[in-house]
Batch of 2 targets.
Target 1
Amino acid sequence: MFGIIRPCRHRLSEGLATSWTAHLCGLCLALRDDHGQLARVATNYDGLIISVLVEAQSERSGDWRRTAGPCPLRGMRTAPVAKGEGARLAAAVSLVLASAKVRDHIADRDGLLGRRPVAAAARRVAGSWDRKGASVGAGIGFDTAVLVDAVDRQTGIEALAGPGTPLLTVTEPTETATAAAFEHTAVLAGRPGNRAPLAEAGRLFGRLAHLLDAVEDLTADQVSGAWNPLTATGTGLAEARRLCDDAVHGIRLALREVEFTDAKLAHVLLVHELPRSVDRAFGTLGHVCATPAEGSYPPGGPYGPPRQNPYGGPYGNPYQNPHGDPYQNPYAPGGPGGGFPPPEPPRRRNWFTGCAIWTGLCCTCQLCCRNPYHDPWTGQPREGWCRGDCDCDCDCCDVCDCCECSCECCECVECCSGCN
C-alpha cells in the first residue's frame, strides 16, 4: 500500500471506516477483475479517492455494494465493497500511474530493478498495465492517454531541471494527470457543473502528492544520489512546506464549489486528513493521544499534579483508615483482607494443535496482515507483522474543528463518534 492519505481508524467513525474499507477493497477487486491478480499490487490509498468522489456525487442506489469473500486483510471476514464505474476508474488510473512508477524505478535502477533481466520483465509488465488501463478507461469514457503523456513529459522535464527551475514546473505533469482523473468523476456521476472545481482540486492534489513524496524521500535520495526535485531545483523545505499548505487550502476552497450528494467521507479524507499528511511528511505532528502532556488533565488526574490533602493541617485526617491509606484495597496482598488467590495461568493449546492453527494463519496471510490475530497457542491477541503501529498522531477529536468548514458534510458527531 502506498499513498499520502492514510487515516487512522481511531479518527473515523464506524460508518466512515466501513465505507473507507469498502472503497479500498473495491479498488483492489476491480484491479483483479479487470487486469488480473498481479495488478492488485497497484492498490493504493490515494487511488480510492476517485471511487469516493464518484459515489459522493451520485444519487443513492441499491447496487453500490457487493459482498466480497474472506480476505486476510479483513481478518478472513466477508465485507461489503464498492463496485461500479467509480471503482473501475480508480483501478484504471491506479494501474497506469503504477506502471509509470515502475518505469521510474527502472530508470533510477532501484534495488532489483537495477538488474537487466528483472528490469526487462518489469518493462513488459508496465506496458501490459498501460494497455489494460487504457482499455478499461475507454469503456467508461476516460482517455488514459493524458496520464501516459504526463508520465512521458515528466521524464523530459526532470532531465532538464536544475538549480533555479521553478518547483511547480516539475510537478506540472502530475498535476495534469490527477486533474483529469478528478474531473472525470463528475462525468461518471452526471454532475457536469462539478468538472471545473474538481479539476482544480485534482491539480492541487497532484501537486501535493508529488511534493510530499519528494520530502519523504529526500534523506534517502541524498544518501543514494537519486534524483529528487527539491535538491535538483535547489528548493528548501520551507518553500516546499509553503506550497503544500497552499495546496491544502486550495483543495478545501475548491471542494466548497462542488455539489455533493453525501460528502462525509470525501470531506474527511480531503479536508481533515490532507493536513495530517503534510504534518507527517514534515515531521510536525502533534502529540500522541495515548501520552498526553503532563498537566493536561485536572489536578489529581493520571497525568496531572497530585491533589493537595484537604486534611493536611496539624491534626491530619480525622477520618484516617487505621490500616493506612484510606483508599487502600483491604483485600490487596499484605492487607487486612489477606489478598486474593493468584490468577490461574492462561490455558495453552498443545504443540500439535498450535502448529496446525499457525499453519492455517500463515497460509492465509493472517500472520502478516491481520490486526489483531490470535496467538495459536495462548489465544492472546497479536499484531500482524506488516500492519505497523497505529497512525494515531492526533489528539483525536481535532477532526471536530470545523470552524472554517461550516459544513453539513462534516457533522462533528459523525466525524468524532469513534473518539468519544
Target 2
Amino acid sequence: MRTEEYIPKRIKELCSKHKVSKYRLAQLTDMSQTALANIMNKKSIPTVPTLERICDAFGISIAQFFAGDGMRPDLTDEQGELLEIWDDLNADERRILMNFVRTLKK
C-alpha cells in the first residue's frame, strides 16, 4: 500500500481503536479540522512534524504508526507485552499505572 493511502487508513484505525473522533484528534494535535480532513481524504500528505503530532496524540512513535497494531519495532517481548497492556487501559487506568511506575523509580 502506498504511503498516501496508508496514512489516512492508519489514522482512521487509531481513531477507532482509541475512540477518538476526528474533531477530538484535531484538538489533540492542535491542527485545524480542515487540515486533518485533507489528510484523511488523501488530498495532502502530512509532514513529519505533523505526523509526529498525530502519533503523540495516540501515544505512539512514528515507527509504531507505520508498523501497525501488533507490531512493536525494536522492543523486547516484555516491553511489547507492557505496551499491549497499556493499549487496553483507559485514561484513568493509565494515570494510576504511571503513578505506580514512578514510585518504583525512587
